[in-house]
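Changelog-adjacent note: as of this version, every example in the card shows the full chain rather than a window. The one below runs 482 residues end to end.
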Amino acid sequence: MLKAYRYQFNIVCALSDLAALAAAFLSAYLLRRDVLPILISALAQRPVFPLGDYLPVFLLSSLVILGCLYALKGYALSPSLPLTSAFLLNARAMVTAFLVTLALAYLLKLTFLSRLFLVSFLLLFMALSTSLRYAAALWFRRAAQKGRYVKRVLLVGAGPQARILARRIQERPELGVQVRGFLSVPGVDSVEDVSQMTGFGIQNLGEVTALPALLEAEVVDGVIFCVTAGSLGAFEDLFLMCEDQGVDTLVAANLFPHLVAQVHLERLEELPLLRFTTIPHNYIALFLKRTLDLAASALGLLVLSPLLVVVAALIKATSRGPVLFSQERVGLHGRRFMCHKFRTMVQNAEELKAHLTHLNEADGPVFKIRQDPRVTPVGRFLRKFSLDELPQLWNVLVGDMSLVGPRPPIPSEVDKYARWQRRRLSMRPGITCLWQISGRSELDFDTWMRLDLQYIDHWSLTLDFVILAKTLPAVLSTRGAA
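Full-length structure tokens:
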């Protein structure tokens, strides 16, 4: 019920985006055909294909744009959306769409696609989409303030949760919800609770026993029960009564004092389940993340294959032992896998580790020595520029790892984790993450863990792109390299 108003707004946004796509594409084509050749003489010599020939480009780029907007939650917005937020959302989506469309055009051999044409199309769409979204947001806000499409609700309870909810609804008229009044619960709500609710301007409609009569006499779209988790059973008859009359029932009970977890309702066939999760649940965005991992790792292994061969030859020529160092690591939710790196240490490095524990410079369960005597000269160079990590592109390709994510620990480290540190295993491990661009080996263990949890709690495709963009400068600067 409470989401219906937002759904309507986002449907309007989606329809306006479809109109903006068509208008922007046609405008970009006419601009390229009739205007730019006059302004830029070099373009006059280049052929312009008929509009119909660009239809595949239009369909491809439109799907990419809509996919990027969806992944960035561009269709899960509130009508209270500020103009700056609408612009920044579209700007992020257009940059992503430009890069993805160019990559797809290259793979599909769409050689006639001009980067200038694509940029013109995306900029025109961004301007049109931002304007239309903001206009839609203004219309919805004004409609809500005038009482159109407003859902009328009753609150059961006058405690702190009820007061917070009432205040939020009052402060946000654009949400399209109006509190008709509240019903106090005898023996639970105090005189002070009732007084504070009426002080907010919420009408006192009596005790909860008056609910059946109110539902028959008033226009009520929903009833929100702001009660404690332990008292839910006492309201079962009222829940069933609301159900019989087709009135939506909502519960604002604080079931558990979760600080991080988000709550989602899921179903296992006919059984409703409440899911408390601390990991990202935008499945479209996660699917795009995996798709980008596959494409980037495959392309990286192909393009970097000459470098991989050279590094392998250097390792083989300068020290005894295998080229690769494969070690069991802990991945998503404790799954074990073999993580591959170029070998940077002498062959019996693990045996020598027992004699070097007194030199460990890292805190926590991690073992690290800045001037580790086990590291070979070639290995030191590889570590300096993180070239030893390149074989992990294979781990990304097969799905054990991602390009961006918390570093995969070894099992002995995980055994020493505190409970809160184990949450970093709730997302697929990666080659780089926030720690890589924040000092790498200079960070203490606790800061490293908290950066990983910060990444998980605020994950988005945009954050992944930012981390990837900052990783190369961090590696080249060798700041914090072990």
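Structural remarks: Residues 151-255 form a domain with the Rossmann fold fold (CATH 3.40.50.720).
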